[in-house]
Amino acid sequence: MPEQRTNKDEVSILAPLREVTNGDRLLWAILVGLVGFGGYAYYQQWTSGLGVTGLNRPVYWGVYITNFVFFIGLAHSGTFISAILRLAGAEWRKPLTRAAEAITIFSLPFGVSSILIDMGRPERAFNVIFYGRFQSPLLWDFTAVSLYMFSSVVFFYLSLLPDIALCRDRLTEVPAWQQWMYRLLALGWQGSRQQYHRLERVLDGMAIFMTMLVVTVHTVVSWVFGMTVQPGWHTALIGPFFLLGAIFSGTAAVVIALAVLRRVYHLEAALPVSLFNSLRKLLIVFTLGWLYMMVAEYLTTFYGSLSDEMAVFWQKFTGDFAWMFWLMVVLVFVLPLIIYVFLGKDRIGWMVTASVLVNIGMWLERYVVIVPTETRPRLLYELVIGTYSPTWIEGAITLALFSGMILLYAVFTRYFPIVPVWETAEVVDEAVETTPRRRWGIQRAGTK
Amino acid sequence: MTRWSMVIDLDKCVGCQGCSIACRFENNTPVVKPEEAIKGRAMRWNDVFPLPINPNEESGEYPNVKTHYLTRPCMHCDNPPCVKVCPVRATFKNDEGLVQQNYARCIGCRFCTVACPYGVRYFNWYEPEWEGSLAVHLNPDRIESEDDLEGPAVRPKGVVEKCTFCIHRLQKARARADSEKRAFRGDEYIPACVQTCTGKARFFGDLDDPESTVSLLAKSPRAFRLLEDVGTHPKVIYLKEG
Amino acid sequence: MEQIVSAISGFFTDAGPGGVVVLAVIVLASFVYFVVIRWILQADEDELSAPPKAGRDFRQRSFNK
Q: How do the domains of chain B map onto residue ranges?
């Protein structure tokens, strides 16, 4: 017997799926155009070589690797909210889970693409499988990120499954192809009590696994830098630093996504302000946590005064990258902390503002971790230029990656409910009549 | 075992850059345009650069300038940080201590390049080109097979390259000894830079052979290695001026 | 064709088990997820939500016989 669940917000949650507006089509067209422009830029790079970028000796890694780390970091938002908060029993997270996980599955492919875009011979990518050396941090990366991407998609799909069935059953006026899609993807879900029970158990199990994956993934991403001996990179703190940064920027991204969805799709009932207040508390903790990491890292470096480390330190604090470093501190810490603490409560507009600043700042932060170290190698006198100016190609490709992510997200929200209907519903208990009461092992007469 | 090593006597080096030039012609190193060189993309497997005596002091005013030069090939470290991080074994250390680079397998990720603390690795930002007479006089010696391209072999864009201690010369010398049905001697193998050096400042040989020149020079009180405290165990030994 | 053959032979002859590990992890994950999804969907509609304990089940069955 199908389990009965009712959701008072079902109508408003499903409303966006019932039509695709001209505004959507315009937005999608613009985003496709930007992606296309990035594709053209990449084509230039494919035919000429990586020389079309601003990369040089010694800055061999720049914007593309920054994008890689940034997008993988954004992905941690979904897993944090769905998996970690699920394990913590934070029931308030339920309306957010799908919107957050959608960020995960739509940002990971662009993180992975960034690596392929950065490679000198991308057509040889499969060499990593055929000739892979597991001693290399890039192999740890490949394994962890692939597994994470795969698992996130499965986790996302399973969480979506009952709602696909709901769409199949409720959305009778949508185009035939869309109905066919729901029927196909619903995999025959009936919504029985047993199915729901098993689904919840699997999601619980996967939540544990995904939490372990989240910690692993961003740590191994940081170890691409941490496992070299270069000053500024070779620090034990880099793992936790990147991990916290990822969860931080990801959670801020969730705030932005939620605010936009709430406004555009009129989901005020399903996504009340209290959700933003809960996220606000987490973001305050993360902002302060980020400060802790920065102080721990730079105070230690400064106090030790090792000359190789100090060369990179001064590049960031007073040198060529000082403007970027201090801008990052303002965007990631100073302004967001002030806004979250004093202005963010019950005010979604301020929450979004601070979260946008955080994400811009976190992109700069990744850049500031990667590039200054390369500009101050130990053998300083080898340096020819020691600066890096990204070209329009790197800019166009970066813009295309962001556009692609937003495009996938926007299209998704028009075809699938972005707030989980089944998770935020109330279960009407129909099972009483079929449960035999047992006492002392003896069955009641008349029951099955 | 054999461990190939190089000794460079900085007292004898005059900074003529003959080694760099010999190297690029021996190994078909691509030439880059001037605007690329300004961006720091010139490729010099063996690089010669001015070395400040004391980084905190001025080098003096013309004509009383104090400048020293350092000539630097690949260190062919015994504990190479580049080999550790290569995801596809495009770079690897062979059992004679040479750190090889296979252009056919390299995926161009540049992990090795950023991991090397000496900056000896270079990347092909564009398709390699040689203009005019340079293109006519490429070194025909090369290591080239279906899945292995090394040394002077013509490489595609998007791969990393570096000094190989002229490994193709080693293979040639061994092949010659084989064809002449005699044992190969260590001193038959001479990299191009060592052969060319105007000041006779460079020496090459087997560090595991206690009688070789490099072994004897390595014991000199003037001997030092670059970045000894980083733990890479480089096999290029410098004799400091003095 | 030759590239495929040489690539496959390289996979099996080369030092470094990295590729094997990556593939093993992904294949194992695929298998686990396939089994798990099938398990969820094959839930019997008429069964109870909490799987009965083995002891009771045994007793229940013996009563029903």
A: 4-239
Across the interface, whether the CB atoms of A131 and C11 are under 8 A apart is answered: yes
* Distance in Å, alpha carbon of B5 to nearest chain C alpha carbon: 26
The identity of residue A15, as a single letter, is A
pLDDT digits (tens, 9 = 90+) for A196-218: 999 999 999 999 999 999 999 99
Q: CA A335, CA B64: separation in Å to the nearest integer? A: 54
Residues B164 and B193 sit within 8 Å (Cβ to Cβ): no
Structural domain includes residue A163: yes
Any CB–CB contact under 8 A between B157 and chain A? yes
Peptide bond into B63 cis (omega under 30): yes
Closest by CA to B27, choosing from B42, B41, B45, is B45
Q: pTM for the whole thing?
A: 0.89
Range of the domain at A117: 12-273+389-428
Residue reference for tokens 């919840």: A200
Residues of chain B with Cβ-Cβ distance to A119 below 8 Å are 107-109, 158
CATH code of the domain covering residue A49: 1.20.1630
- Please tell me if residue B95 touches chain C, with a CB cutoff of 8 Å: no
Token pair 């998704």 in the structure block, residue: A412
CA distances from B128 to B28, B43, B69, B153, C11 (A): 9, 11, 28, 11, 29
Q: Go through A363-376 and write b for each residue having 16 or more CB atoms within 10 A of its CB, e for each that does not.
A: bbbbbbbbbbbbbb
**What was the pLDDT predicted at A164?**
94
Fold of B4-239: Alpha-Beta Plaits (3.30.70)
Nearest to A267 by CA among A413, A437, A121: A413
Name subunits touching B (3+ CB pairs < 8 A). A, C
Chains B, C: CB contacts within 8 A come to: 7
Record: contact C18-B87, CB cut-off 8 A? yes
DSSP string, B112-163: HHHH-TT---EE--S-----THHHHT-----EEETTEEETTS---TT-EE--
CB of B161 closer than 8 Å to CB of B45: yes
Strand pairing partners for B48?
A: B71
Task: Determine the residue of chain B that is closest to A48 in CA distance.
Answer: B126
Q: What is the helix (H) or strand (E) element at residue B148, kind and residue range? A: strand B148-150
Cβ-defined contact of C16 to B146 (cutoff 8 Å): no
Report CB contact under 8 Å: C14, B146: no
What ipTM describes this predicted complex? Answer: 0.91
- φ/ψ region of A188 (left if φ > 0, alpha if ψ in -120 to 50, else beta) reads left
d(CA B93, CA B164): 11
Q: Record the tokens describing residue B172, joined without a space.
A: 């040639």
Q: Which residues of chain C lie closer than 8 angstroms to B87, CB-CB?
A: 18
pLDDT on residue A427:
72
Pairing between strand B4-9 and B236-239?
parallel
Query: What tokens does A37 get?
Result: 């422009």
**Is B157–A49 a contact, with Cβ atoms under 8 angstroms apart?**
yes
Give pLDDT < 70 ranges for chain A.
1, 381-385, 429-448
Q: Is A112 in contact with A185 (CB distance < 8 Å)?
A: no
Query: How big is the A-B interface in CB pairs under 8 Å?
Result: 145
